[in-house]
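#help-structures
NK: newbie question, is this the right format to request a structure? protein is Cryptic plasmid protein A
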Amino acid sequence: MEPELTNDRARREWQWLCREVGETAARATIAALPGNRRPYPLNVARALGVALPPEEKLPRLHKPADESVMNAALAQSRRALRGS
């Protein structure tokens, strides 16, 4: 079963949950959610008895891109737009 990740915060919460309890346990909890509860990270955390941390304590989604990589991608896009 898949978690319902509707925004970046939810993705960051899911990453945190997987680090804290393990992805296998988190996914098993989704399957065992009572009633018709949606598999949001908050509901999974509650079912596990875990409190999610404040937003500033959540992991980043990705590392900032290297500026040289971004510049190369921009240059390639400009060439494609010019038809070169």
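mod (FA): yep, format's fine, and the tokens are attached above. The mean pLDDT is 90.
NK: thank you!
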